[in-house]
Amino acid sequence: MDCIGIIGYGHMGSMLVNGFLSSGVLGIDEVVVTSRSRESRDACAAAWPGIGIAATNRELARQCRTIVLAVRPQETKEVLSEIVPVMDGDEHIVSLAAGIGLAEIEGMFPGSVTRVVPTITSTVGQGTTLICHGRQVGMHDALRVEGLFSAIGNVMLVGEEELPAATILSSCGPGLFAAIIEELAGATVRASGLTPEQALALATETAAATAAYLRETGETPGDLVGRVATGGGVTEVGVRGFRERLPEVFDEAVAAMLERYGAVGK
Ligand SMILES: NC(=O)c1ccc[n+]([C@@H]2O[C@H](COP(=O)([O-])OP(=O)(O)OC[C@H]3O[C@@H](n4cnc5c(N)ncnc54)[C@H](OP(=O)(O)O)[C@@H]3O)[C@@H](O)[C@H]2O)c1
């Protein structure tokens, strides 16, 4: 049966089920879900009446040709070793696990394997899912997976070497930008009579508007800084401070994230 099976109904698994079904890219009879706990399986069945729920990972693997592993990196190999014995070999494994390479998965399942890095912002149909196909993935399977994720946002095909850095931008990015919004809003609250709610509303809306401006005008961030930070003005003082101190902060943060990425799932 050419259905999509999703193993793991956590943050990402539930987001994918919601996204694929709400967007209409998949019908309710084209998705089968399982998760370790009865509670998660029941939650999925309650949220999506009529959806296929498999009692075990093996049951799902017997039913579906495309199998999305939406479990944590440390659980991915355990789930794979559980399901591989009941698979035919012509299935397509789609792994979300950060830090577990194609070669490692292909070592356990010598068939079609794709790594996908989702982003929490797909919940609102925005952001970019990264896709990295293994060498065994045929055109049909590649386009199918790309089409599915295109329904919940943008997709970008990347080589496996670029995946860690691209992950920092697309998948960790929402957390990083949220932290920046929080810091900027917090600093204005500490320095003024703005309420935290006012500051957060302004900072959040400005971040969204800035991204929309850059996307729609095609200007670079440098162009935009040049338009807003006029010589001797208020913005220029802030931007100068950022440019003096932030490169070091960001270099350190990116280096630490890349180091952690390499250790995930090991
Ligand atoms: N969160 C993000 O923003 C993000 C971004 C990019 C990539 N990812 C990747 O996405 C994957 C999932 O992350 P997540 O945030 O969704 O994790 P999560 O919320 O912890 O969800 C993982 C789910 O896997 C289920 N599970 C665990 N062991 C299982 C097993 N042996 N068999 C079947 N189901 C099992 C758990 O089920 P129960 O609840 O039933 O116990 C849990 O619901 C990870 O590999 C992560 O690296 C996450």
Automatic annotation (TrEMBL):
Keywords per UniProt: Amino-acid biosynthesis, Cytoplasm, NADP, Oxidoreductase, Proline biosynthesis
Enzyme class, first EC level, given as a word: oxidoreductase
Keyword RNA-binding in annotation: no
The organism of origin for this protein: Methanoculleus chikugoensis
EC assignment: 1.5.1.2
Gene encoding the protein: proC
Pfam (any one): F420_oxidored
Native organism taxonomy: Archaea, Methanobacteriati, Methanobacteriota, Stenosarchaea group, Methanomicrobia
Xref: InterPro entries: P5C_Rdtase_cat_N (IPR028939), P5CR_dimer (IPR029036), Pyrroline-COOH_reductase (IPR000304)
Family of the protein in this entry: Belongs to the pyrroline-5-carboxylate reductase family.
Pathway of action: Amino-acid biosynthesis; L-proline biosynthesis; L-proline from L-glutamate 5-semialdehyde: step 1/1
Primary location: cytoplasm
UniProt entry tagged with the keyword Amino-acid biosynthesis: yes
Reactions accelerated catalytically: L-proline + NADP(+) = (S)-1-pyrroline-5-carboxylate + NADPH + 2 H(+); L-proline + NAD(+) = (S)-1-pyrroline-5-carboxylate + NADH + 2 H(+)
Descriptive protein name: Pyrroline-5-carboxylate reductase
Function summary: Catalyzes the reduction of 1-pyrroline-5-carboxylate (PCA) to L-proline.
Pyrroline-5-carboxylate reductase dimerisation domain mapped to chain residues: 160-261
